[in-house]
Write a structure and sequence with these properties.
By secondary structure, this protein is α+β, with helices and mostly antiparallel strands. The protein folds into three domains: 236 residues, Phosphoribosyl-aminoimidazole Synthetase, Chain A, domain 2; 281 residues, PurM-like, N-terminal domain (60s Ribosomal Protein L30, Chain: A, 2-Layer Sandwich), CATH 3.30.1330; 232 residues, Alpha-Beta Complex (Phosphoribosyl-aminoimidazole Synthetase, Chain A, domain 2). Helices cover 34% and strands 24% of the residues. The strands form seven sheets. The protein has a seven-stranded mixed beta sheet with strand order 8-10-7-11-9-12-13. A hairpin with a 3-residue loop joins β14 and β15. α16 crosses α26 and α19 runs parallel beside α20. The N and C termini lie far apart (66 Å). 59% of the residues are buried.
């Protein structure tokens, strides 16, 4: 055995690995000596927030993770749920934020590649991808470059691999200037009889390296993802991996073929921290050890040293534990697919990770010290909300300029008609059509996509086995899976607890709008530094909100990702954190795909209803003293008045569940022909979007009298809040639909008008026009906004 150095590292060397001084002392105590260079790097990546969740782990424990459909929960490469009829669905969301900020194309592309590997490592074939993206102000040239690069990277990898990108969300706000968020979610259908897990087992079993070669790309990516971005981050460009989607397509086929032989005991994707993570996690989960010889690893560069082997995040690589005597069988499969496959190690009884190089021991560390028994930090929660939140909550709508049914008196503009305000909101990139984005994605490959991006509030795909499932018994109808990703980060910033609850509620609402029953959640927690009191308060409160809401909706969390330290250091050296953004990915089940709907009107003469808080109750509807519909934190307030303030809308969970259940039942019965939730931009924008998607107009009679002086018309039109869905119903079903609502949703539904013509008209109860706009003009504004801004046209 090699004699390890007893010389300590300098404070600068320790800090360069992202290790704190006290953590280094802990490492020395655990090893009984000072680590060598390779070992220090291994601890650096494995003790990063990205890998060990040392700041967030105590908070994640409050998430509900069990349920009657949960087959695999947090802790594996992906969560798995039982979708019935012998079908099992794997799904997970991951982030690739910092790499995308430095190299947007490859950063986003390899983010897609990584989440796909998480899915097929479990034995599932990927059938769909969604993404949740955040960019800064499109007036900034760097933001435009980042946006174009990220979208191109996602399109490149998904299209080449052959998986449809079926949905997602894109937000734009100056809070993300310099620090975009790139969250990718993937879904797969289990193709193997047994679920493939990652815990190593079987002393003496060979450890087999498969896939691509190892190079110096992606060095220390996990540590890079756990530090603030600075002007020096460009120097970390080598930390960004380079992906090959065509090689990964071969890899998925080889892996699934190998899994079906029964020869694979355990499998682990080599993502963050590469060989270090895969060996340590497999050993720790199996309560065994792994000995790995770096001389046997296929490489693409010469002169590599153990530090580089162990911290490389080269893509398209996997590590298997194979049943003894069957390695040749597995290797033959991978070689037939044109991939590398070599026996590079062995499962050993000592619970350690032992790394060999050139006949000597290059590293030897207890597996638990790298993977399970890692540092955990318990931060003190602020005794009261921070000043910025209390200041925001003191804001009142009365501070806005006066408005009437005709418009609002904006400073230096006179009275601006509501139609002009509607156009301005539809041109806001967060609300505007994302066609420029999703038209670059292949969303029909595999021929399972039912709702293409932009057609409905959630993606819908056919649910069918990729191959023969032994106990699959299809019924007389085709079933479907719906999926969505959601989070209004401005609401979370203003009130992390309520905003996080609202993210779960909106995800469930979007599924309900296509007729799907919400089943389970995967989350991606994008926050600033947890080491700062405000950052930790935001993270802790948001986690509490997510946990409470997931329990209410009975949607357990099956796994996810934590991405902290999303901060950009400005030229004065001051860190600027992003808005706290806990993205919720949710999947739901549709029993009959013939009973689903999109957001666009279907036929002239259909009746329009508002489910949830009626228009004339937007001022009085409250939950725990907070309004359910408000201008606080709204897109209207930010776009028209330049303010991100106020108390965001509260969530009435009981009402939310009642409204969603009514919507689902209406769709299942064939009564409801379109459904669209009132989200960013409120009721007026939801109506406009339904008109644009259906290419039909509407005549809407708002049940408000001009004589009501307390009513703010901007809140009525553009106020935001949960538990509100706009639906259209055939006149032939009016009686049974209204009877059902009267029984199941009394006092929380309202007839608004009729689908008709090619103009959207909003009028008062007395018939006075509030706003009128040709659908074609609204569509032109909505459809071209992002492309024009990306072209630098304003």
């Amino acid at each position: 055995m090699t004699a390890f150095s007893t010389a300590p590292f300098s404070p600068a060397e320790i800090a360069s690995e992202g290790i704190k001084p006290e953590e280094y002392n802990d490492i020395v105590q655990r090893l009984g000596r000072h680590p060598n260079r390779a070992e220090l790097g291994m601890f650096g990546v494995m003790w990063s927030e990205h890998c060990c969740y040392k700041n967030s782990r105590p908070l994640l424990k409050q998430f509900p993770t069990e349920g009657p459909r949960v087959l695999v929960g947090p802790g594996e490469n992906a969560g798995i749920i039982d979708a019935g009829d012998g079908l099992r669905v794997a799904f997970k969301i991951e982030s690739h934020n910092h790499p995308s900020a430095v190299e947007p194309f490859q950063g986003a592309a390899t983010g897609v590649g990584g989440i796909l590997r998480d899915i097929f490592t479990m034995g599932a074939r990927p059938i769909a991808v969604l993404n949740s993206l955040r960019f800064g102000d499109l007036a900034d040239s760097r933001t435009r470059r980042l946006c174009q690069g990220v979208v191109s990277g996602i399109a490149h990898y998904g299209n080449c691999f052959g998986v449809p990108t079926v949905g997602g969300e894109v937000y734009f706000d100056s809070a993300y200037n310099g620090n975009p968020l790139v969250n990718a979610m993937a879904i797969g259908i289990m193709e193997t009889t047994e679920i493939v897990k990652s815990g190593a087992a079987g002393l003496g079993n060979p450890v087999v390296y498969v896939g691509s070669t190892t190079g110096r790309d992606g060095m220390g990516g996990a540590s890079f993802a756990s530090a603030e971005l600075t002007d020096e981050s460009e120097r970390d460009r080598p930390a960004v991996q380079v992906g090959d989607p065509f090689l990964e397509k071969s890899l998925v086929e080889a892996c699934l073929e190998a899994f079906k032989t029964g020869a694979i005991v355990a499998a682990q994707d080599m993502g963050a921290a590469g060989l270090t993570c895969s060996t340590a996690e497999m050993a720790a989960k199996g309560v065994v050890g792994i000995e790995l010889d770096l001389d046997l690893i296929p490489v693409r560069e010469t002169g590599m040293v153990p530090y580089e082997y162990l911290l490389s995040e080269s893509q398209e690589r996997m590590l298997f534990v194979v049943a003894r005597g069957r390695a040749a069988e597995v290797i033959e499969i991978f070689e037939r697919w044109g991939l590398h496959a070599v026996v590079a190690g062995t499962v050993i009884p000592e619970p350690i990770v032992r790394i060999l190089f050139k006949g000597e021991t290059a590293a030897e560390i207890p597996a638990l010290a790298l993977s399970e028994n890692t540092p955990v930090y318990h931060h003190e929660l602020l005794s009261q909300p921070p000043d910025y939140a209390q200041t925001a909550w003191a804001w009142r709508e009365e501070s806005l300029p006066p408005c009437s049914a005709a418009g609002i008196a904006l400073p230096n503009s006179g009275e601006t008609p509501w139609t002009d305000i509607l156009h301005q909101l539809l041109a806001q990139p967060t609300i505007a059509s994302k066609a420029w984005v999703y038209r670059q994605y292949d969303h029909q490959v595999q021929n399972n996509t039912v709702h293409c991006p932009g057609q409905g509030d959630a993606a819908v795909i056919r649910l069918r086995p990729q191959e023969a499932v032994p106990d699959y018994q299809p019924g007389g109808v085709q079933r479907g899976l719906a999926a969505t990703v959601d989070c209004n980060a401005r609401h979370v910033y203003l009130n992390p607890y309520e905003g996080a609850k609202a993210a779960v509620a909106e995800a469930a609402r979007n599924l309900s709008c296509v007729g799907a029953l919400p089943l389970a959640v995967t989350d991606n927690l994008n926050f600033g530094s947890p080491e700062k009191p405000i950052g930790y308060w935001q993270l802790a409160e948001a986690c509490r909100g997510l946990a409470d809401a997931c329990r209410e909706f009975e949607t357990p969390v099956t796994g996810g990702n934590v991405s902290l330290y999303n901060e950009t250091v400005d030229s004065q050296g001051n860190p600027q954190p992003i808005y706290p953004t806990p993205v919720v990915g949710m999947v739901g089940l549709i029993d009959d795909l013939s009973r689903t709907c999109g957001q666009g009107w279907q036929q002239a003469g259909d009746l329009i209803y508002l489910l949830g808080i009626p228009v004339d109750q937007t001022t009085t509807a409250m939950a725990e003293g907070q309004p359910l519909v408000t201008l606080g934190g709204s897109e209207y307030l930010a776009t028209i008045h330049g303010q991100a303030t106020g108390h965001p809308p509260a969530i009435d969970m009981a009402l939310e569940k009642q409204v969603q259940a009514a919507c689902r039942q209406g769709i299942a019965q064939g009564w409801v022909r379109s459904a669209h939730d009132c989200a960013e931009g409120g009721l007026a924008v939801a109506l406009a979007e339904s008109c644009i998607s259906g290419q039909l107009g509407a005549v809407v009679q708002l049940p408000i009298e001009l004589s009501q002086p307390h009513q703010r018309w901007d809140r009525l039109l553009f106020g935001e809040g949960g538990a509100r869905i706009v639906v259209s119903v055939s006149p032939g079903h009016q009686a049974e639909w209204e009877a059902y609502l009267g029984d199941r949703l009394p006092d929380h539904w309202q007839w608004l008008g009729t689908v008709d013509g090619d103009v959207l008209t909003l009028a008062t109860q007395e018939g006075q026009t509030v706003s009128t706009a040709a659908v074609a003009e609204l569509a032109e504004t909505w459809q071209t906004a992002i492309a024009r801004k990306l072209a630098g046209e304003g």
